[in-house]
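[PROTEIN RECORD]
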Amino acid sequence: MSAPYEVEFRPEAVSDLDRLAPDARERVLDRVRWLAAHFDEITPEPLRGKQWRGVLKLRVGDYRILYAADRRQHLLTIHLIGHRREIYR
């Protein structure tokens, strides 16, 4: 197993986290920590469409985490977090 990835939250993602209920926020943060530790072991799921080029998604129940990964710098950048109904709008 390789070293964990560093995680960077964009300001929009921090705002998204602040709007979540405490239990949902904790589930999302647990999943982000898991992703940072296991990213090299998974097959990331890319989004489709030109506007989403380079963006990956991670499912956490009804919530989605939209992020980018830089394997060279060992960095995950969290762009948006939200309910699956609203995140892609």
